[in-house]
Structure formats: C-alpha cells, structure tokens
Specification:
Order of helices and strands: HHHHHHH
Distance between the termini: 54 Å
Helix content: 55-70%
C-alpha cells in the first residue's frame, strides 16, 4: 500500500517547526479552555467570585492546552517524519488529542474511543479539503450560483388541492 495517499498532494512539502507549532496550538486551546472555564464559572452558583474561573473550573484550561498541544505536536511531527501533508497526519494528531481528552474519564476504552472518534473526524475533514466550505474553493462565481440553484431551490410547489390529487387525500398535512 505504499504510495497511496488519501488526498492529492498539496505542493512541495515544507518542514514544520514541531515545537513552535505545539506551543502555538497549546496556547490557542488554552485560551479556549479559559473562555469555556469562564462561561462555566459564570453559570454556576458559588461564593468564589471571579477566581472560580481558576479554582473551580480551572482544570478546563489545562485540558484544553494539553489537547491542543498534543494535536499540533503529533500532526506536525508525523508530517515531518513522513515528509508529506495529508489526512493521515490529521488522523494521528486527532487520535492523540482524543486520547488526551479520553484520559479525563480514566478508562482505556474512553482513551481509545475518543482517539478514534476525533482522529477519524479530523481525517475526514482534512481529506475533504480542510473545511466544510471547500467545495466552492475552485469554482467561479457563475459555477457557485449554478450549484446553489441546483441544490437549494424548490423545484415545484404544489397547491393543497393539487397535492391531494397527486399524493392522495389524507396524505397531505
């Protein structure tokens, strides 16, 4: 199975600074963890005040940073080792991030299950082009409009009497 790629090549490979990528990913997800911790703290009833962000729900900050660090570290390390940029790297990074997320539960099935779920999800998104809107990436404006009109417009509207005639009485809401 050598030489088989999940995604067409994206141009010449450029090595990544794995440690710097991991620090950036950890910092980004740590900030997200802080935001989630602040929201949870705001919605709870307690007498800790604003420090509850760190004392009551502060573990979310560390978990977020650990998940972000593990994803970016392992995905960029596998890209550097394999010297290619494809969906396998996203799967490896996503699996490790999911495994870290599963550690919070403390069961091996959670670690493996979360790793497989998150890794598969990241790999599919990467294989599809990296975002949900990537189907429009290489289309012209006319092609985008034609695509939207083809898929997102109502072809034919039936009046109630006409619908009863076509589908039968009692089958029309």
């Amino acid at each position: 199975m050598s030489g088989v790629s999940l995604h067409p090549p994206r141009g010449p490979f450029q090595k990544k600074d794995t440690l710097m990528e991991a620090l950036k990913g950890g910092a980004t997800m740590g900030v997200m963890g802080l935001a989630v911790s602040a929201m949870k703290n705001h919605l709870q009833t307690h007498n800790h005040g604003g420090m509850g962000v760190f004392t009551r729900t502060g573990s979310l900050i560390g978990w977020g940073a650990a998940i972000g660090t593990s994803f970016t570290f392992f995905s960029s390390a596998s890209a550097n080792l394999r010297e290619t940029e494809d969906a396998y790297n996203a799967f490896i990074g996503g699996f490790m991030a999911g495994a870290v997320a599963g550690l919070k539960k403390g069961k091996i099935t959670s670690v493996v299950g979360m790793g497989a779920l998150i890794g598969s999800t990241f790999a599919v998104v990467d294989w599809c082009g990296g975002s949900y809107g990537s189907i429009y990436k290489e289309m012209t404006e006319e092609e985008k409009e034609e695509f939207k009109n083809k898929w997102f417009t109502v072809k034919r509207r039936y009046y109630r009497a006409e619908a009863e005639e076509v589908f039968g009485k009692g089958r029309v809401a």
